[in-house]
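Colleagues,

Please find the record for the two-part complex below.
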Amino acid sequence: MTTTPVRPPTAAGLAVELTDLTRVYGSVKALDGLTLHLAPGELVALLGPSGCGKTTALRILAGLDQPTSGRVEVGGKDLTRVPANKRDMGMVFQAYSLFPHLTVLENVAFGLKLRGKDAGARRKVAQEKLELVGLSEHGSRYASQLSGGQQQRVALARALAIEPSVLLLDEPLSALDAKVRVQLRDEIRRVQIEVGTTTLFVTHDQEEALAVADRVGVMNAGRLEQLAPPAELYSAPATKFVGEFVGLSNRLPATVQGGTASVLGRDVPALDGSTSGPGFALVRPEAVSVVADADGGATVTAVMFLGPLSRVTCLLADGTDVVAQLASSDALRLQPGQAVRLEVEPSPVLVVAG
Amino acid sequence: MRHGAGFRVVRAVLLGLFALYFFLPLISMANFSVQGKGPLEGEITFHYYAELVRNEDLRSAIVSSLLLAAFTVLLMVVLLVPTMIWVRLRTPGLSRTVEFLCLLPLTVPPLVIVVGITNVYTWVNYLLGDSPQVLVFAYVVLVLPYSYRSIDSALSAIDVTTLAEAARSLGAGWTTVITRIVMPNIVSGVLGAAFIAIALVLGEYVFASLLHYDTMPVALAAIYKSETSTAIAGAFASIVLISLLLLGLSFFNRSKAPDVGGQKA
């Protein structure tokens, strides 16, 4: 498992250490020994299906929930039993959370008021943060007069106004439509790099996680399956769950011997964690190439045009479906029913037991 | 949506009938209360309204009822609002129990409650004196179901949990969360509860009469036997006052209710 941060620490950020966190609700173990380190200024995304424990981890870090066991440290200080309002963390929620009776400016200044800042200082900082998220003209409006995307921007400005030790983002984009989601996703990343606050971003959207994070942690059943930079997570999944959850994978029959996997008649390196002997190789569609060959042993069953790329589905003689992702210029030369030969790239693959 | 002429006629007739049903007794009361009797026979007079203030027993009963209404509202708000917010935020599992307890007084006839609490009130009188203001304890129970409903609707209209968590993450303690975040967003519900409580207390007769306290309805009932016009003037004045309160509430709700929806993204 990779744990090395890929960005250098920043002055504004503090290190976060979650150690062996467990959270049990009745008979359900929401977190099962989660250990996670965030370097100062780093943005880590926690990714996983519903109920995997990612939000529980974030809420425990925020102080909105208490761990059954384990330890939470920020900047070397033990915060495990410190209440949420004493933790100095900014949070953006999945649900719209602006205070309806306050204007945008008053919302952003709320945390500063609680910290005893005078009116002038509050106004100045709030205005700065609104400029940071591109809403400086909307200070006098109420939440009900803003779109969903604008409300989440204001929530981000409000969270940043208190200069938090850690920024927590709990699926802040999931209530927004696709276009706004992409815009705001990029904006969150820009702002996070600009302010340098250590950030934990929880999402179930893998594209979102891979796009914004320095490292992505994939969670399953309360445990961290893998924590790695996005490219590594995609190209070298550590477990069967990660290989199948992140991106699209073909399960191709393979045999592993001495660190080498034989897939579709070709020898490729087997990743650490691969099973030995017969199993299934998890091969990305873009690692499969399709060559017209009357004796190739495979048949094209469908060609799906996706713009610059296309997906070609083929059927092997043993009944296995294989999806290949090709440049559309190559894919459109293929016809359903055509005999082809499939080849895999010589990149490492994870081989899992059936 | 456009409606046909037939629909408009039916609507006008129905509205007219309802207006007649509601306003005819009020108009009759108003008319009766300004018609001079005895030496004032044949005159239109506000003598009986003046009498409401001049009659010392009635005046003190009105003051008692107004004070009772104010204390009932105060105690209800102090007890109920923080409890309901706390249950929503910290012990949502108890919400059914709290709802059941708050609605329970609706199912018990006031007469039964009075019989049940008579002995309790012997002790209350012994400890706190026999001022009508001690009725406040019984009246808080009486108004509980209506107040609960009004505050509960206001709380349901906002995402209390998320707002509270957002405020907590920004550094707010629980008192700040309740007073500066939740309360301002449920003002209309609390006002609704308050006005309903005032209306109930100003019209409550059974508790006060059977427990022997002189409140406005008890005094009006007593006067009705000897000075009918003054009693009708008092009843009409209290109806107008309560109507104005409720009318004010509906206007306040319309202009101040927080819109928590937001536009689409």
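The two ends of chain A are 23 Å apart (CA to CA).

Comments are welcome before we finalize the supplementary table.
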